[in-house]
Every structure is written in C-alpha cells, then in structure tokens.
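Onboarding guide, step 5: your first structure request.
Type a short instruction followed by the sequence, for example:

Predict the 3D structure of this protein.
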Amino acid sequence: MKYFLTFLFTALLFHSVSLAEKPNVVFFIADDVSQEDFGCYGHPVIQTPNVDSLAKQGIRFDNAYLTTSSCSPTRCSIITGRYPHNTGAPELHVRLPKEQIRFPELLREAGYYTVLSGKNHMFGNKDRAFDRITGGGGPGKEKDWVNHVKDRPREKPFFFWFASTDAHRSWAISDEAPEYDPKDVIIPPYMVDTEITRQDLAGYYHEVSRFDHYIGLVTAELKKQGVLENTMIVVAADNGRPFPRCKSRMYDSGIKTPWVIHYPKLIQKSSVTPSFVSVIDLSATCLELAGVKRPAFIQGRSFLPILEDPKAQVREVVFAEHNWHVYKNHERMVRFGDYLYIRNNFPNQPNLCYESDDHYPAGAELWKAHAAGKTNPSQQQVFANPCPPEELFQVNHDPHQLTNLADDKKHAKALKQARTLLAAWTKQTGDSIPANPTPNRHDPPKIMDGKILPPGKAKTRNPHAEMPGASNNAMKINDPGPLKP
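The system replies with structure tokens like these:
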C-alpha cells in the first residue's frame, strides 16, 4: 500500500507539472477595428505601443482574414473553427447552436483553465467551454482582465478569451488612452473630409488606443508571473472599423484583421509574413499547441509552421462571407495571389450597414454629401444600386479596392480562377443562397429631392428566416474547401 501511494503521488505530481508546462494562450479580440489602424501596421497617428511591441518581438501577419465582417458571426466562426454558414449562426444576433463544439471546451477537457471576459455575443453567461465568463467591466469591458490572470489556478495551463467592446460605437472617452486632435486624423478616400467626420474618427482612435492599453497591462502581468515566454498571445478584431465601406463589407477595410502573434518559445526572430491565414485557423493552432488532435469538424488549419518559418504557407487561399447584418445580403469573397474577388448574389439593392443617422456621424456626413451631389467616384461606390454582381481587385496595386477589374480582359484568367475557387468552396462546404432570406430590419435610407430620408423605424427584432447553408444541412459538413488555387 505504501508503494502504491508513493507511485500515485508521483504520478499526480508528474501530471501537474506536465499540465503546467503546456503552452498558454491569450486571445485578444477588439470590436470593430480594421487591420491598418495599429502603429505596427503603419498607421501614423493611432498610438498602440503595446501591440507594436508584441509585433516587434513576434510575427505580424499582413494577410490575415476574417470569415465574415460581422460581430457575432465572426466570434461563432472563430470559436468553432468553422465558416459562418457551417456554424448554424451565420447572421448577426444568432446564438451559437449547442451542438457546435467550441475549441476551448476541448482545451478545458485537456486540463486547461479557460476564461471568457468582456464581449460575448455567442451564448449565455455560462457555457461548457469556459470555467468562468465575466462581463469585463469599464467602458471597453477590459477592467477585470488582469485580475483573471492573477487569480488563475497556478497548476493549470490557461486559455483566456479577452474581448473588448473597443472600438464599438458609441465612443466613451476615459483616462486609459490619449485623446486625438481631429485635425490629425487620416481620412480614407471613400469618406468625406468634414469636421464631423474628423471628430468621429478621433473618438474611434481613442478606443483603439484603450484596447492597446489593456493588452499592455495583461502582458506586464504575464511577464511578472514568469509565464510570458510560454504564452502565445494573439491580437485580432472581429470586423472592420464602424465606418462606411468598412464594417460588414468584403473589402480589406472590413474583412482584414490585425493578427499579431507573440510566442517567444517558438518565434525565434521577429518578422512580417505575407502568408495567408484565416481566423478559423486559431482553433487548430491552439489544439496543436495543447497536444490535442484536431477533430474533423474544425475547418481551420494550424499556422504553427508559419511561426517557425514566416515563409511557410498553410493555405494559399482564404474565403469569407457577408450575410444578414441589419440589411439582407449574400456576398462571397475569395482572396488568392494578388487578387480579391467578391460575388454579390443580391445585387439589386444597395449594400449598406447602418450608417446614416446621428449615431453614425461619418456615415451621415457621407450621405449629406451624396444628397448634395458632392461625392467623388471613390465615395460614391457605397451608394451603388444595383451593386456590381462581380468585383475583382488587384490588391497590391489597389489597397482600398476602388478599381473593379471584373470587365478588364487583361485579368480574365484571374476572374475565371476566382469563379472556379468560389464554386468549389460553395459546393464542398455546403453553402447556399436562401430562397427565403431574412428581410431588412427596417427600410434603408433614401434620397428624395436632394434630401435624406433616414432609415425607417426599426421593427421589433425580426426573426431570422432561412439562413445560408441551411438547405444543404451545412452544420453537418466539415469539408474545409480548397486550401490551394
């Protein structure tokens, strides 16, 4: 009996040590922030010293893509490692079905301590994937992040999903970040340069910096505890900035995410990688780190090879989708080589987000300019009705995707390749165009006699109708679609 107890104690001790030595993961996800709005991605005004420092010591991904540019569908996609139409929650405000496995629950089963703090937008305040779910606190829902790091059980590896509400509207100015002078902001070519637009962007800049501030506090606590070296930190966002032609759209301003990885144990030299990665790849990566076999239902692929060699590739093509987000929509995107292709399956309507009232000042300014006939071609695109059914852009030559090459014969080969890739992905993943799509929540704004008729009064939150993939039972399909052109 004595020998048995000694053996049992030794086995338990070994198990405890081996668990504690497993890599930790901290996933920071901002709310409505475009990739380009960090110092490390070249923004000349917004101060993000903490993310910049992580990038300087880690890897910055220049071609990291979301699977959709919409809040809850993105989060449900990331946490399952599946495309939105495969999760059963592809539209805004749809809860993740219980039968969909969340990858943190697999980490939890493998001995990890798991926490979600801040914005949830996927399920209730209790879920089998997390030991704890809290609201975060403060204007950006970040105030309890450091305490979670301090209060964790020290004998377990950990996975923290830290989700801010920075920079979701409306703006809340606080002491944790600098205030910006409107004269210093950078006006994208698809917005109008007015004082109101500048003030709106200045408020957004402040919230991006506040998100960075709390990342710095968590990083400092990890370092203080001596676990920073064995922790993979990921900095990301759920969709682009909440401004015209960004959030909910398929252009880089809406669909590209910051993707900064800091993991000293594996990243030997800081670098910038052009390799493609999709947010659904986080699931497979975390599971591989934890020594958990990737289940068949995860459509993502591990990007650990890129951390070891920034020239490595785990996929040569990425896909994304735009479904109902206040307004009815069905767009699909494929990015490959130097091309970005968008297919709009509901072209006979304007492609809008909620962007023309006092809650959305920069959008309202754009609408006023449009009503007065003062918008230029770059600013006019958001009002297209009907929209082009196909768009093709050469990204390195057209970073804002303003010149549609779909009808340019010089790019006919790329257009054909894009159509083929998207058709294959659609079939293999079970995507579909709903015959009875979810209708608009309210009537879109209109211009009549030079005046703006604002959006119609919002209806009671309308029930979702047929969703993409439902007719093909896409929730049961695990095929990831093409990984190479």
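Each response can be followed by summary notes, for example: The chain is about 30% helix and 15% strand.
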